[in-house]
Amino acid sequence: MEGARTCRYPGCDRPVAPGDGRGRPPAYCDDAGHTRASAFRARREAVERRDDTTDVTDSAPVSSARVRAGTLVERVEAAVGELTTLTAAVVADLRTLGDVEAVELEMASVTASAERRAAEARANAAEADTRRRRAEAAAAEAERLREEAEAAADESIAEAASARALADEATRQLEEAREREVVVGQERDGAFAQVRDLAGRLEEEGAQLARVETDLDRALERVRVLERAVASAEGSVAALREELRDEVGRRERAEASVVAGERAVEVLRGEVQEVRGALVRSEALVAEGAARREELGALVVAREERVAVLEREGEVARSRVAVLEARLEEQRVAAELAVAAAERSTVERVAELRAVYEAQLRVPGGGDAP
Questions:
Q1: Per-residue pLDDT reduced to its tens digit, 84-93
Q2: What average pLDDT does range 352-366 have in this prediction?
Q3: Is 361 inside a domain boundary?
Q4: Which of 136, 190, 212, 299 is 20 to 30 Å from 56 by CA-CA measure?
C-alpha cells in the first residue's frame, strides 16, 4: 500500500524511515517534526479549515475515505500514546506516594481501556480500509465501464466514418455516371448531326446521280439520232452508188457526192464514238454514284446503329444513376441509424456506469467512522 512506502504526514511524500525489525513498522520519514501527534494535529486543522470554507459534497469519496481512515488511526494512536504517557506519569506519581498496588490496578484498568479503544480503533480502521477497497473496486469498475463506453463510442464513430466513406464513394460513382451520361448525350447529338449531314450529302449525291442519268438519257437519244442519221447516210450512199451504176455520165458528181457522203459518214462515226465514250463515262459515273450511294447508305446504317448503341448506353447510364442514387440514400439512412445507435449505446453505457458507481458508493457501512 502507499502508506507503507511514503511518509503518512499530510503533504509529505518522502520515504519512511528504515525500521529496526522490531514492533510496528515506521510510518513516518526521518523528519523529527513528522510524528503521530503532529500528523493528527495537521489533519485535524485541515479538516477544520475544510469544514469552515466549504459545504460542497466531496467529489473524491475514495480519497476522502482514505484520509478519514488515516485520521482515525492517527487519532487513536495519538490518544493511546498520550494515555500511555499519562499512565506512566500517574504510575510514577503513585509510586512516589507509595501506593504501588493501587497504581498497578489503575494502570491495568487504564491499559485495558486503552487496549479496548485501540482494538476499536483498529476495527474502525479495518472497516474504513474495507470501505476504501470497496470504493477502489467501484472506481476500477467505473473506469472499466467508462473504457468500454469509450470503446463502443469509438467503434460507433468508426462505423459512422465507414458509412460516410461508402456514401462518398457512392456519390463519386453517381457523379461519374452523370458525367458519362452527359458524354453519351453529346456523342449521341454528334451522331445525329453526322446522320443529318450524311442524309444531306446523300440527297445531293442522289440529285447529282439524277442529273447524270438525265444526261445519259440525252446522250442515248443523241446516239440513236446519230445512228439513224448514219443509217440514212448509208442509204443515201447506196442510192448514190446505184445511181452511179445507172448514170455513168454523172460519175464525177456521184463520186464526189459519195466521197462527201463517206466523209460525212466518217464524221458521224467519230461523233458516234465520242457519244459512246461519253456513254461509257456516264455509265461509270452511274456505277460510281450507285457505289457511293451504297457507301453512304452503309455509313448511315452504321451511324444509326451507333446512335442506337449510344441510346442504350444512355439508358444503362440512367439506370446506373438511379441505382447509385438509391444506394446512396440507403447508405445515408444506414449511416444515420448507425450514428443514432452509437449515441444511444453511449448514453446507455454512461447511465449504466453511473448507476454501478453510485451503487458501489451506497454499499453498507459507507458512512464516516466516528
A1: 666 666 566 5
A2: 64
A3: no
A4: 136
